[in-house]
Amino acid sequence: MSTNVLYPLKFKPIFKDKIWGGRKIKDIIGLDYGKLPNCGEAWLLSGIWDEQSVVTNGDFEGDEINDLVETFMGDLVGEDVFDRYGEQFPLLIKIIDANDWLSVQVHPDDELAEKRDIGYGKTEMWYVMQADPEAELVSGFNCEMNRMKYIRVLKDNDIQSVLNHETAEKGDVFYIPAGRVHALGPGIVVAEIQQTSDTTYRIYDWDRIDVAGMRRELHIPQSLDAVDFDPVENYKTPYTPVLNKTVPVVDSPYFTTNVLTLKGAMAKDYSELDSFVLLFPVEGKFLLEWENGSIFVTTGEVVLIPNVIDKVNIKAQDECKLLEIYVNK
Q1: Is the pLDDT of residue 63 over 90?
Q2: 3-class DSSP state of 42
Q3: Separation between Cα atoms, residue 260 and residue 19, nearest integer Å
């Protein structure tokens, strides 16, 4: 591995064929997933140990992300981030194309994941990049729930009756903390930011049969201690985009996400931040400039700005909308 100076990094996407996937990752986002019959997920940046992202630009082209974290530690990810997460990059960034309902599922939190020796929990958020008219998703329950009622509706195959449905439109944000029952519905493309975890407990799969005539495995016993039954007043995260301003959207212990809607240029100073920064264009493209260079970043890509780079300039090509993501203390 080269020991050259760190610079903003881009990565090769990892494509996932899913029973519910479609063609929008190619047709709308513009990513070529090759010979797959469809593509449910494009992993744009992954620190999952056996499915790590590989750098595509500059001196570190061909290197895996966790190898770079091991080498550069806090210089790459931030001192506090490295102390917390070690040599594994702490976030997984995806684009998901739901051509059909995803399974109704829930993820464990950090405490339960540690208890079960499965790494980290999985808190995530969705930013809706595209949605067909009247598209819906599931987030939480539509009534008071408890463990006994949950077991009963599962036993009666009646979980659909207690799920909270939300309409999804372009620009909507849904925060999905670990423990919240959720499912994406057909006709939705989302950008997903999540903890580095691939643990999902499938609760209900719409009685779906796969190409081999089989039903996918459910994880009912595993889900019982993972589900958060507490109701939430608003399942959609409210925010108002403001042109050429940084608008906070999600601030969790695992990641902070802001929305930037740009025309022209915006200077950013990250010197007070002890973290890497990800810039993820969800619409349009921009030129990222820093002291030693520049790079174009377009929809369907993520660029990682190392912690040691404090100042950058973002120049939108026409109008650009992007997510700014980092880890707060």
Answers
A1: yes
A2: strand
A3: 33
